Amino acid sequence: MRTVSTPAHADPDGVPLEAADDSAESTRRRVLELVASDGPVTAADLATCLGLTAAGVRRHLAQLEDDGTITVHAAPGVAPVRRGRPARAYVVTTVGQAELHDAYSDLAVQALRHLRAVGGDAAVTVFAAHRYDDLVERVGPRLASTDPAERAGQLAAALSEEGYAASVRPVAGATLVPIAQLCQGHCPVQHVAEEFPELCEAEARAFSELLGTHVQRLATIAGGAHACVTNLPLGTAHHATLGVAQHAPAEGTR
Predict the structure, then answer these.
(1) If residue 209 lies in a helix (H) or strand (E), which one and from where to where?
(2) Residue 57 within a domain
(3) Is the separation of the CB atoms in 210 and 245 below 8 Å?
(4) Residue 189's domain spans which residues?
């Protein structure tokens, strides 16, 4: 019987090593994106989403953890599990966020520094307001529901299309007014917002206008958190029937 040898440049399954390396890199990138959008998330959850074995996903997670792009999430106030080994849940680190951020952030920082030097803080505030005016105009028509919870979900979907890896999660224990949290696992302007928080402030105002209700920003990636987290009251939205909410004049100072 003729024996077919595997080429030296192929893996045991006969797949060229270059193709195997590209596939592994692509999968790791997808794992990193999912940890950013869904974290804290376990290997089992990722395996289900990706259609891979938990062991295979854990290899990618181990590589990402060694690279410093993800870390195990330590939930405060959670009692230790008495029996069995608790599942490790992962979140993206600031290093991981840096891999996902826009390559032009350095140029944007330089431009905003120049704008501040020429026009002061007020000029940066106006710029940030105009940037999120554009976001409201793009996203507003996609928020068709008048139900606050559904509208929040539509906002998350629209933001994900814009590159924010957003999701909406219910908040347990909210009794007087139902509350959800808008979680953004990726911030396209993270490194710019680290120096110019006016961008984060204007973004929160845009969310308030789009949902027609007051929102509360709890954490930001630019501030060192693993995700931008915003509380969304799910009571009656005053402007929920509007495709695009009306804008208040931008503040002249920070």
Answers:
(1) helix 198-211
(2) yes
(3) yes
(4) 105-233
Long-range pairs, 187-190, Cβ under 8 A, ≥24: 187/97, 187/101, 187/220, 187/221, 187/222, 187/228, 188/101, 188/102, 188/162, 188/163, 188/164, 189/101, 189/102, 189/105, 189/108, 189/222, 190/97, 190/98, 190/101, 190/105, 190/221, 190/222
- How many domains is the chain partitioned into structurally? 2
Residue 179 is assigned to a structural domain of this protein:
yes
Confirm whether 82 is domain-assigned.
no
pLDDT tens-digit map of 125-175 = 999 999 999 999 999 999 999 999 999 999 999 999 888 889 999 887 656
Distance of CA 251 to the CA centre of its chain: 27
b/e sequence 149-163, b meaning 16+ C-beta within 10 Å: eebbbbbbbbbbeee
Q: Look at the pTM and tell me if it is higher than 0.70.
A: no
Please check whether residue 163 lies inside any domain of the structure: yes
User: Are 217 and 116 in a shared domain?
Assistant: yes
